[in-house]
Design a protein that fits this description.
By secondary structure, the chain is mainly alpha-helical. The chain has nine helices and six strands; from the N terminus they run E-H-E-E-E-H-H-H-H-H-E-H-H-E-H.
């Protein structure tokens, strides 16, 4: 006898071992936010349906996308701009703030690209392929999506990088700097920030096929964390949409 239950909440259990993507995160009800908080904190979801009570694994990454509450206020905290509770915000390793700034040059680039794709002046797919071929000729053959997926799966299963002493010192210094910052966010600058930095450092080490996380991996995690916010004690005020990696990003 098989019983099919319909779950009216975000299916984090279905993404066990993978990634759970949630659009319109701000539209989730308070009850469902509590479920997501449990999934991110305990890596399980408790389900009670039709007299059955069970616990499902949710060992997954959560990617949430949302709009701010009204117009984004640079002077207000993330909790105010997102209407999300501090405990839920602190569970995310990184919160990327992407601002649609009023820049005439950038607006011209975007509008020209969209209009060209509708006027026969350019084929976005063909142009993207041409740019990829140009890059491939400069740095070597580009991987297709299947090879990239296989590489990610390989490094996930192969490496569990440990931190070198240099990497530990860098992360500790950055965490201390964030705690001393005059405008730090209480919801974000907790011990979970340090844990997030460790996970991001280890992830970059895996990406670079390293059994140990070096100072370069820690520095990359710090730069990504800094670039994700609208202002920081290191980079100052910036827009994440304007950030990019240089030709020698690992140096």
């Amino acid at each position: 006898l098989s019983t099919i239950l319909r779950l009216d909440r975000p299916r984090g259990d279905a993404a066990d071992g993978g990634i759970c993507c949630i659009d319109e995160f701000d539209g989730i009800s308070d009850g469902d936010r509590a479920v997501i908080l449990e999934a991110m904190e305990q890596q399980t979801i408790s389900v009670a349906k039709a007299g059955l009570v069970t616990t499902l694994h949710t060992r997954t990454s959560v990617l949430g996308i949302m709009n701010p509450k009204g117009t984004f206020d640079r002077t207000a905290s993330l909790a105010v701009n997102t209407s999300l509770s501090g405990p839920l915000l602190s569970r995310f390793d990184m919160i990327l703030v992407m601002l649609d700034t009023k820049d005439a040059a950038w607006d011209q680039v975007v509008s020209s690209h969209i209009l060209d794709s509708h006027s026969g002046g350019g084929d976005p797919v063909r142009d993207s392929a041409a740019r990829g071929a140009a890059v491939s000729g400069a740095v070597g053959p580009l991987w297709d999506i299947d090879k990239l997926r296989a590489y990610v799966q390989l490094v996930k299963e192969t490496f569990e990088p440990s931190l070198t002493s240099d990497a530990e010192q860098l992360l500790s210094a950055y965490y201390t700097l964030q705690r001393r910052s005059a405008g730090y966010a209480n919801a974000r600058t907790t011990i979970r920030l340090l844990e997030s930095l460790v996970r991001m450092t280890q992830a970059h080490a895996r990406l670079m096929f390293r059994p140990q996380a070096t100072r370069a991996d820690a520095a990359t995690a710090v730069i990504i964390m800094e670039a994700s916010s609208t202002s920081s004690p290191i980079l100052g005020a910036m827009n994440a949409m304007d950030a990019f990696f240089g030709d020698e990003a690992d140096q």
